[in-house]
Amino acid sequence: MNAMQFPLTRVTIGFTFGILFANYTTFLATIVGFGCITFASIFFAFAFYRARKQFFQDHLFGIAVYLMSFCIGAATLMLHSATYQKSHYSKLISDSNTEHVAQIVLRERLKPTAYCERYIALVNDIDGTVSHGKLLVNCYKNGLKRPFKIGAELQIRGEILRPTAPLNPDQFDYGRYLKQKSILGQTYISSQNIKINPKYYRDIFYYADRLRCMILDNLQKHHFRKTELHVLAALILGQQQDIDPEVVQDYQFAGAVHILSVSGLHVGFVLLFMQFLLKWLPNSKRNSYFKLSFTLIALWSFAILAGLSPSVVRSATMFSFLTIGLQLNRQTNVLHTLMVSLLLILLFEPSFLFDVGFQLSYLALFFILWLQPLLSQIWHPENKIVNYFWQILTVSFAAQIGTLPLSLYYFHQFPGLFFITNMAVIPLLSIIMGLGVLLMAIAALGWVPNLLVRLVENLIWILNKIISSIASAEQLVWKDIPFNTLMTISSYLLIIAIALVVKKFSFKTMAMVLVAILFFQGSYFSSRWHSQAHDQWIVFNLRKKTLIIEKNANQVTAYTDADFTNNHPLNSYLTNQFCQLKAKKTIQKLMLFGQKKILIVDRLGQYPQKTSPDVMLFRDSPPVNLERVLKTCRPKILIADASNYKSYIALWKATCLKEKIPFHATDEKGFYRLEN
Known about the structure:
The chain is α+β, with helices and mostly antiparallel strands. The protein has helices at 7-24, 26-53, 60-80, 174-180, 204-221, 226-237, 245-253, 264-277, 285-305, 310-327, 334-348, 356-376, 384-411, 418-444, 450-471, 485-503, 507-532, 569-576, 626-633, 646-659, 666-669, and strands spanning 99-109, 116-126, 129-130, 134-140, 152-161, 183-189, 194-200, 414-415, 477-478, 536-539, 547-552, 555-560, 580-585, 590-593, 596-601, 615-618, 637-640, 663-665, 672-675. The two termini are 57 Å apart. Helix content is 53%, strand content 16%.
């Protein structure tokens, strides 16, 4: 039976589109969620009653089901949104520079930065008012003896900042990323502003963290090398916080970074391991229920131990449905199971839909289940070993094809040697996962055999060496690939059309491929034309530096005193605008952009009198009398970039307000752009 013929599959599709609609159209979603849901319910009841009376069914009931599930999806996201929750802490914080006292519980430790330990915390109280919500807490390392444990109850004092828009063009929108994770504020605090409650909030996350810490401590006592131990912690426990950034980069360039995130591959290994352990039990009704219960407990215990990330929750839910189906001796359509698990997860946590790992995980599994059988039919090797590697290759290709457009959209790079990586890594990873799970289970009991420690340690060392050698071929890693939303959608339509042709060649499917190709070409050329149709002059927001760019068609000239790095804000701009860097020049005193005259004043404070510029830019804190400058030059707008002292910027802002001259500070309002 086709998965699309199952009612819950159609409900899931409508429900998912409802969540997307509510996320991107807030005002309209409010009307749909709290107005149209009543109409949808009445319409559904009418269609259901009508369908029961009809001998020949029409499409009215199907439309009612889609409409009802769509409205429920929109309402579900809104009910989970802080906008409609009166007790959320975001309603109590001020936009001004005001300190708040908050009672929090640490829920999750994130990857630390050079200066801060980072946590996701649950708020219990703000300034004496009971409230709730997730808060991103950045603790400065100075004065902090050691990282806090999960479950620690803290009283913190500091300013709570709302998520802000990116300060540079086409930059990653971190504020939106936090909002999609239901995090509507963050704070930076020093150890002096933290009071620690000696008691811990003892929930399931606290005990899972204690167990993880105990396992890793026991392995460290047996001199497990740090680099390999951190990789093992990522593979088995889902803890990536302490992995060396160079190791992560190697995995990215080799196309194997997905194995560092606990997902379906890892949960599948746990399921196979449990089936192996319980294989000796004789088949009976009583033992069947015992196997089912024990396997489900093991799957969800592993999920909790791995931190209940979206991909782990997805995998554990889906494999739970599969396990129940197998134990009850019922035929299970895996694609249908996948859709049911998606619906169940989004009912409880609709924000998971916007998690990148969650999206990639579902897409990879969907295309493995749908596309891999088509690929495996191309060749049927008789040799078992050759067939084993052929199956690995087809699974790898199916997953890569399914996730490629979304990966290009988010990361703008493609590892050319991904198939070699998977062929080399998956057999070794199978051994590491089996031995690693066994080692972790033994370490949790406090007994760690040295032979097993050395074996797993050396296997991970070999894994890292293989990954490093593949990643060293950087010329086969294509970077900075421009890819937007329209191109992503058209790419998936093209992939689906080609797969349908492979499955069943006909005039109709070939026509779909041709239309999809035209759609993709149109999306690419229209995106490129739209980005290059206007010339731009932009002042970037760069800490302690100045960067000015001038774009003409697809050529960009940069005027700067800064060096370009891999994560430079200019790189993302060039990629998203389909442009390339033509030249890098020193910053000039006077520039012309179209009909506009731009005067730039640096640390020397020298400027020509009575120039009447359209734009005046201050950089490197020029020691000038601004009132005199404004009277003699009369600029139409004054810009101060992030290379200036903040105290100077505050004085300039007040002076411009007094003189009624528009003022733009890039560290407050973000980049400044002129366009022709």
